[in-house]
Amino acid sequence: MVLLVDTFNSCFDVENANAAREVLNAAGYRVIYPQPVKKGRPLCCGRTFLSSGLLGEAKLEANRMLDALMPYTERGVPIVGLEPSCLLTLRDEYKVLMPGDDTDELAKNVFLLEEFLATEHATGRLQLDLKPIVPKKALLHGHCHQKAFNMMSAVQKVLSLIPELEVKTIDSSCCGMAGSFGYEKEHYDISMKMGSLSLFPAVKEADTDVLIVADGTSCRSQIEHGTGKQAMHVARVLQMALNS
Predict the structure, then answer these.
(1) Where are the domains of the chain?
(2) Which residues contact 63 (CB under 8 A, 6 or more apart)?
(3) Nearest to residue 222, comparing CAs of 231, 211, 234, 209?
(4) Burial class (CB in 10 A: 0-12, 13-18, 19+), 125
(5) What is the fold of 129-241?
(6) Residue 32: predicted pLDDT
(7) CA 207 to mean position of chain CA atoms
(8) For residues 2 and 31, what is the distance between their CA atoms, to the nearest angstrom?
(9) What pLDDT was estimated at residue 42?
(10) SS3 for 79?
(11) Could you tell me how far CA 141 lies from the centroid of its own chain?
(12) What angle do CA 117, 84, 222 make, to 5 degrees?
């Protein structure tokens, strides 16, 4: 299978990509990293351009991504990603930017890590030996794209595969970061107020031995800034539980 490592997880949170590879290898999958057809800068989904209204630049990146991934989609090789906003751009916005058979096929063949693992488990194909971990409790915050695409159940399912781990999903809306929104000076106060509605209080009130789980890069950054606590990608939690 193809592991599509986005810019955030290849440049800033490399430990997430390493954890995902280790988990997939432990489950018996051979991991392939896609490369741009024309050598040079790494692949990018174009999400940041889309968020800024730069459709021409976004389409350029989308075409580069499509060229690199089509050989795999044509053979039915699953493409697994880690960052919700990036991976789901391939499933959603690409079909609007470049409507056609290629983007339709790509959309059917891309999965978030937890979605892929949950599907494999449901079909009986997942062979992943997991052990109990410490801490025994986890608080889960869902990225807005995960919620919009009804993927929270997949994260919950995958975490439930870890023996004895008690998982509670935080009843929260957007963390407030919203891509680059919370980084902008004029939006900072609004961003922090959004996080303070329910997310920050839940994280602050959690015991120090409770794991905070959040797949979104922006969510983890916002949680750390607003609470002083670090959240983990689900890949790293699964890595902790590998029985090897």
Answers:
(1) 2-119, 129-241
(2) 98
(3) 231
(4) exposed
(5) Rossmann fold (3.40.50)
(6) 97
(7) 25
(8) 6
(9) 93
(10) strand
(11) 12
(12) 120
Neighbouring-strand partners of residue 3: 80
Question: pLDDT band for position 39 (50/70/90)?
Answer: confident
pLDDT on residue 34: 96
- Cα 196–Cα 236–Cα 87 angle in degrees, nearest 5: 75
Could you tell me how far CA 192 lies from the centroid of its own chain?
22
pLDDT digits (tens, 9 = 90+) for 6-31: 998 999 899 999 999 999 999 999 99
- State the Cα–Cα distance between residues 17 and 5, nearest whole angstrom: 6
Q: Measured between alpha carbons, how far is 217 from 197 in angstroms, rounded to an integer?
A: 20
Query: Average pLDDT in the 194-221 region?
Result: 94
At 163, phi and psi to the nearest 5? -55, 135
**Cis-peptide into 135, omega within 30 deg:** yes
Sheet containing strand 2-4, edge to edge, reads: 2-4, 79-81, 110-112
Of 8, 2, 7, nearest in space to 24 by CA: 2
SS3 166: strand
What's the chain's average pLDDT? 94
User: Rounded to two decimals, what is the model's pTM?
Assistant: 0.94
Residue count of the chain: 244
For the stretch 54-100, pLDDT in tens is 999 999 999 999 999 999 999 999 999 999 999 999 999 999 999 99
* Residue 141, strand partner residues: 214
- State the residue for tokens 């870890």: 162
- Residue of 166, 126, 125, 163 lying closest to 241 (CA atoms): 163
